[in-house]
Amino acid sequence: MGNGAPETTPLPDRAPTTSPAPTAAPATPATLVLRWRTLGGIAGLGEPGGLPDFSLYGDGRAVTAERGALREYRLRPEALRRLLDEARTAGLDRSRTAGDHRIPDALTLEFVMGGARVRVAQPEAAPGDPAVRFQKRLDPRAWPDGDQAAPPRPYVPRRVAVLTGEDPAPDARPWPLPALGGGERLGGAACRVYTGADAGKAASLARTAKPADRWRSQGRTYSVRFRPLLPDETTCRDLARP
Question: What's residue 55's pLDDT?
Answer without folding.
Answer: 97
